[in-house]
UniProtKB/TrEMBL annotation:
Natural source organism: Alkalitalea saponilacus
Signal peptide: none
Official protein name in the record: Conserved repeat domain-containing protein/Por secretion system C-terminal sorting domain-containing protein
Annotated keywords: Repeat
NHL repeats: 164-207, 223-266, 291-321
Length: 1216
């Protein structure tokens, strides 16, 4: 039976449940577009690419991982192993400490055993950093070391994906793999593996400790036996990288679908669908929101998402994990912008900021980015290490070590800052094993997300500790052991002691009866030094009890009860009930009220009498109390003297015995003023004025407390109302006592207004007076008085009108004054236009428009004339206009009427332009038309002249015909139109363009219509004289055609040819590639023996298996062209044996049979893509016929290399 089992679910305790939210840590590292890396491993500097294998190189580096213990591991795809640094290196090109998968740092050993690997693609650590996991992709397996290797070639402890360490078969199902790549271990211990060639992701609910343990969940397939690819949200196509976000989301790079999938939670069932797509399914693009064959993914502790965009030679950074499809990235590394995809941008030369096919990304405790690339042979580190140092440790305690199905489990994680400065940006992870059910947690700092296990503590002072307790239960489970982990994953400072950055604990799952029920009995109200008995009663199946009591002065007892002696510290009592084999529920009692047993002083008078006064109290008589120890105690008060505030003031007397015991007593001080002020004058005199009173002199009164009181009145000043106004004076002593006194204010106005002008002047006008300017008078009270009149406005009557002005001061006093208004009109009307304009007409004037004049009184006056209408005489007639205002005043004005005909005749039916086809010799034509007519405004007698008459002969081209009409006044009008004679000769060509560049195969054939049917031809000034011309090169050809009327037609025609065929050839290794990708056919041949056919020579690429000079004949349509000869010198070591192998069928769908030389021992068969990537490898072959299956690859050309014990052979495989 296990002991020391602490803290599970409290029955008597209030629990705060988690508000689920992602952990976000700001400011660990600042990234920017196209930034430089800060450090490089695998190369001595950023400008070098060394592809040799040694202790300081990273040959084909694919994946990297940094453990919580500060150990760095890098997987080598070409180096067939994993390099390990025991502590993180701080200089460029630092050598590794240990290699696994190979026996040493000088020899690459490719094999299948506990210590030898083939093509390691992925690497990961357990959360506590104690176990190492490697995906041995070439052997279709995952290897596990139960401790971090310390010697070269150290053997693995566990294999999954294969039944034994010496097998490497690929397959599906729960126990098989086909090129595993990416690895990730979750906080709750789940192992996640991307099974690349099976197009799936496998999940083990715990890191296996035994060989060939089956997976628990599959993603990308609906079952464990399927392996097809697809583009649906529940499908994958060659997954590579995998990571779990701070909020528990699963992120997978879907390599051949050009996307990254986000699952909002780690799937628990097979075939789950993703929730978010980053990139665009099945479409490779180079944009801010698109991807091209992404490989690795990672998330920094502060929530940044990093994607190694393999085919775009860049890394995309998202400041937070996207929640919608097609989200834009925030930053890019490796390229200057989001549209560039140059290898080693910009110039193809390696430096600190560019990259070439980046494979994987990872992050360390300080948020730095680790980027590896198989073709770069290096590990790039972006971001800076902190300069401040500290030491943050994490431990696990209070563990429920032995549990049964249905029982509760618990453990406590404690973070402690052992450094000398404040530690900031702290994030730890901790979680129950995945097979357990989470119930709740208790954290004394920060926020905890149980889905991801992230505990964000933010900051801790030197020496400070923070704790997190996680409680859960055990569902149906098999007996055995499960591990829970806790580790530090984020810190803003440099941790100089990685050894204490992680911890783990093991839970033993047993079979047995779980304790049930029960109550924890005992009081919570206790005294200092008091001993109280607490007991756990009524628990079924309990055979023992484990007590955990914190804060007590002492504890004694056994079994289900304990005697607890209390001190002054807070106390928490926790107890587990234990059955024969496991723990049950936990009981918690806390929140004790701990007090001391002591007696304060007792007042001698039970109730103190009130102290009374009208105005103030200047001193107090202290009461007393009696204490058990001190005797008589004189009270002290809290009042400020003197007390003057009216009302009741409660003062507190305190009796203190000097030993920490006090008692208090209250007493009332009552200040109440009840005497009102007395006026100093018994009766106030009247105040008199004619107009107003603007201020008052305040009287006074005398008060018993306040002394002299100045009265306040209720009047509104100034007082202007005529008559008597009674005002009231009030004397207020401020204590609620008032007295009043009245006084009369008498206003009486008896003086009338006096006019300001003694005699008003006459008002004169010619026509009328519409308004009057009022005179004024001055009043003693009202001031200026404006007069009012008795007139009716306007005044228009000619002569004198007398008006009366009245001045009224509003108080009954009035005065009057008279004034004369004189109207007399003496002004004649004035014409509105100084000089009237002439009236003109061509033939006659039948009516006249009357002009106007303006009169000062009558306004507008319409003139009258002396003429006889109509006026028809040609020339000038003078008429006189007269204006009369009706008051005897007149004026006159003259105007000229001018008759003059200036309008030309109006022509009608002028013919439109005429186009006639040549119909007679000389290429001319006889033309007819209807002649025009004209009318005049004044006369019918017109004269006409013409340049041509209908029926005239017109030459080829344009001829103008003109008609002129003249009236009796000499006004002329003309009509003109064009007669155009044309030939209807027409040329219709048929052309054949040059078929191939530089070939005289063009032709032109002419069909002629129109004219009189007899034609002659003249090409290019006499070069040819027929209607058809063949055998033409590209160019422009001109022709002149003449008919029997002598009419001529010119035209020109262009003959074009296609562009020359691109015959450029690129040589990479022993592969020659035509750069013309749009050709219809290719034929490669040896320039030295062009008549001898070359095997497999009809593709865009050609693999040269022996040295020589080669060229390609390229066919586009019916045209061919031959490239320059390219020299190739073979670098193969042994004699080249070409043609000893056969691949049937070829081309194929990716599945074919390879026939090899049966007399030789086959070491390996390796298949490479055009980019040089190893896509498949076969080893341990004993038969000469080998089935090749790369049907999971895309269409194209692949190279099969067979390595014999004494030589090698190469053949090309084509997938349609």
């Amino acid at each position: 039976m296990k002991k020391n089992l602490l803290l599970t679910k409290p029955n008597l305790f209030f629990v705060l449940f988690l508000l689920f939210m992602p952990v976000v840590l700001f400011g660990q590292q600042n990234y920017s577009n196209f930034m430089n890396a800060s450090q490089v491993l695998g190369q001595p500097d950023f400008a070098t690419i060394n592809d040799t294998y040694n202790q300081s190189s990273l040959l084909g580096a694919t994946y990297s991982a940094v453990s919580s213990k500060g150990v760095l591991a890098v997987a080598l795809q070409q180096g067939c192993g994993v390099f390990i640094w025991n502590s993180f290196p701080t200089t460029n090109g630092a050598p590794a400490d240990v290699v696994i998968g190979n026996t040493n740092f000088t020899t690459i050993t490719d094999g299948t055993s506990e210590s030898i690997m083939s093509t390691s693609d992925g690497v990961a650590f357990s959360p506590d950093g104690n176990r190492l996991i490697v995906s041995d992709a070439g052997n279709n397996r995952v290897l596990i070391w139960n401790s971090i290797p310390t010697t070269n070639g150290q053997e693995a402890d566990v294999v999954i994906g294969q039944p034994i360490f010496t097998s490497s078969a690929e397959g599906t199902g729960r126990r098989s793999l086909n090129r595993p790549t990416g690895l990730f271990v979750t906080t709750d211990g789940r192992l996640i593996v991307t099974d690349h060639n099976n197009n799936r992701v496998l999940i083990w609910n715990a890191i296996p400790y035994e060989n060939n343990i089956p997976a628990d969940v599959v993603i990308g397939q609906n079952d464990f036996n399927s392996s097809g690819s697809g583009t649906g949200l529940n499908q994958l196509n060659g997954p590579y990288g995998v990571w779990v976000a701070p909020d528990g989301k699963l992120v997978v790079s879907d390599h051949f679908n050009h996307r990254v999938l986000v699952y909002n939670t780690i799937p628990e069932t097979n075939g789950a669908s993703a929730d978010v797509v980053v990139g665009e399914t099945s479409t490779a693009r180079t944009r801010i929101n698109r991807l091209r064959n992404p490989s690795g993914v990672s998330l920094s502790p502060d929530g940044k998402l990093f994607i190694s965009d393999w085919g775009n030679h860049r890394v995309l950074i998202f400041n937070e994990i996207p929640t919608t499809n097609g989200a834009n990235a925030d930053m890019v590394l490796g390229q200057p912008d989001f549209t560039a995809r140059t290898q080693f941008n910009p110039a193809g030369s390696v430096d600190a900021r560019n990259m070439n096919y980046p494979y994987n990304v990872a992050n360390d405790i300080n948020g730095r980015l680790f980027l590896s690339g198989r073709y770069m042979h290096r590990l790039m580190i972006f971001g800076d290490a902190p300069t401040e140092e500290t030491d943050v440790a994490i431990t696990i305690s209070g563990v429920t070590e032995s549990v049964c199905e249905g029982g509760q489990v618990s453990f406590t994680v404690t973070l402690t800052n052992h450094g000398e400065i404040e530690a900031t940006g702290i994030i730890a992870t901790a979680a129950l094993p995945h097979s357990f059910n989470y119930e709740y947690h208790e954290a004394d700092a920060g926020t905890y997300n149980h889905l991801s296990g992230y505990w964000n503590v933010k900051a801790m002072a030197p020496g400070e500790s923070k704790s997190l307790t996680i409680i859960g239960n055990v569902p149906a489970a098999s007996p055995g052991n499960l591990t829970a982990y806790a580790n530090l994953i984020a810190l803003n400072q440099l941790d100089y002691n990685y050894s204490n950055n992680s911890d783990n604990t093991s839970f033993e799952i047993s079979i047995g009866d779980v304790p049930q029920g029960g109550n924890l009995n005992g009081p919570t109200e206790v005294f200092v030094n008091q001993t109280v008995t607490y007991s756990l009663e009524g628990v079924e199946n309990a055979v023992d009890y484990i007590w955990d009591i914190k804060g007590a002065a002492s504890v004694s007892g056994s079994g289900n009860s304990r005697d607890v002696t209390f001190g002054t510290s807070p106390v928490t009592i926790k107890v587990f009930a234990v059955s024969e084999s496991c723990t049950g529920n936990v009981f918690v009692l806390s929140g004790f009220n701990i007090t001391e047993d002591s007696t304060p002083p007792v007042p001698n008078i039970v109730e103190l009498p009130d102290i009374n006064s009208e105005c103030s109290v200047f001193e107090l008589t202290a009461p007393t109390a009696t204490d058990d120890y001190a005797g008589t105690i004189t009270g002290t008060h809290d009042a400020e003297l003197p007390i003057t505030a009216q009302g009741t003031k409660v003062i507190t007397w305190t009796y203190d015995d000097g030993h920490g015991n006090t008692s208090t007593q209250q007493q009332n001080v009552v200040i109440e003023d009840v005497t009102a002020p007395v006026p100093d004058v018994a009766e106030l005199p009247d105040i008199t004025a004619e107009c107003m009173v603007t201020e008052l002199t305040a009287p006074t009164a005398t008060d018993n407390c306040a002394g002299t009181i100045t009265g306040t009145h209720n009047a509104e000043l100034p007082i202007t109302a005529q008559g008597t106004t009674v005002i009231t004076w009030t004397y207020d002593d401020g204590h609620g006592n008032t007295s009043t006194q009245q006084q009369n204010v008498v206003i009486e106005d008896v003086t009338a207004p006096v006019p300001d002008v003694a005699e008003l002047p006459d008002i004169t006008a010619e026509c009328m007076v519409t308004e009057l300017t009022a005179p004024t008078a001055t009043d003693n009270c009202a001031g200026t008085i404006t007069g009012t009149h008795d007139a009716e406005l306007p005044i228009t009557a000619q002569g004198t009108k007398v008006i009366t002005w009245t001045y009224d001061d509003g108080n009954g006093n009035i005065s009057t004054q008279q004034q004369n208004v004189v109207i007399e009109d003496v002004t004649a009307p004035v014409p509105d236009v100084t000089e009237l304009p002439d009236i003109t007409a061509e033939c006659m004037v039948t009516e006249l428009t009357a002009p106007t004049a303006t009169d000062n009184c009558a306004g507008t006056i319409v003139g009258t004339h002396d003429a006889e209408l109509p006026i028809t005489a040609q020339g000038t007639t003078v008429i006189t206009w007269t204006y009369d205002d009706g008051h005897g005043n007149t004026s006159t004005q003259q105007q000229n009427v001018v008759i003059e005909d200036v309008t030309a005749p109006d022509i009608s039916q002028c013919p439109e332009n005429i186009v006639a086809v040549a119909n007679t010799a000389g290429c001319s034509a006889i033309v007819y038309w209807n002649e025009p007519d004209a009318i005049d405004n004044c006369t019918d007698n017109l004269t006409v002249s013409r340049s041509h008459v209908p029926g005239d002969i017109f030459p080829l081209g344009d001829t103008e015909v003109v008609y002129t009409f003249t009236d009796q006044a000499g006004n002329k009008a003309t009509c003109s139109f064009m007669v155009t004679v044309v030939s209807d000769l027409q040329i219709s060509p048929e052309k054949e363009m040059v078929l191939c560049y530089g070939n005289p195969s063009g032709s032109i054939s002419l069909t002629i219509s129109g004219g009189n049917g007899s034609y002659s031809f003249n090409w290019n000034d006499g070069e040819w004289d027929e209607s058809e011309w063949t055998g033409l090169f590209s160019g422009t050809y001109q022709v002149e055609v003449t008919d029997g009327y002598g009419c001529l037609k010119n035209s020109s025609f262009a003959i074009s040819e296609p562009l020359p065929i691109n015959t450029d050839v690129q040589l990479e290794g022993n592969v020659l590639k035509a750069l013309n990708i749009n050709a219809d056919g290719y034929r490669w041949f040896n320039c030295n023996f062009p008549e001898i056919p070359v095997a497999n020579s009809e593709e865009i690429e050609f693999v040269a298996l022996q040295y020589g000079e080669y060229a390609v004949e390229i066919t586009v349509g019916n045209c061919t062209a031959v490239s320059d000869c390219i020299s190739y010198f073979s670098t193969f070591a042994g004699e080249q044996i070409v043609g000893s192998m056969q691949l049937i069928p070829n081309p194929s769908n990716g599945v074919a049979t390879l026939s090899t030389d049966s007399s030789r021992e086959i070491i390996s068969i390796q298949i490479y893509s055009q980019s040089g990537s190893l896509v498949r490898e076969y080893r341990g072959l004993s038969e000469s016929l080998v089935e090749i299956d790369i049907s999971d690859q895309s269409g194209g050309v692949y190279i099969i290399e067979v390595l014999y014990s004494d030589d090698r052979e190469v053949i090309k495989m084509i997938i349609r």
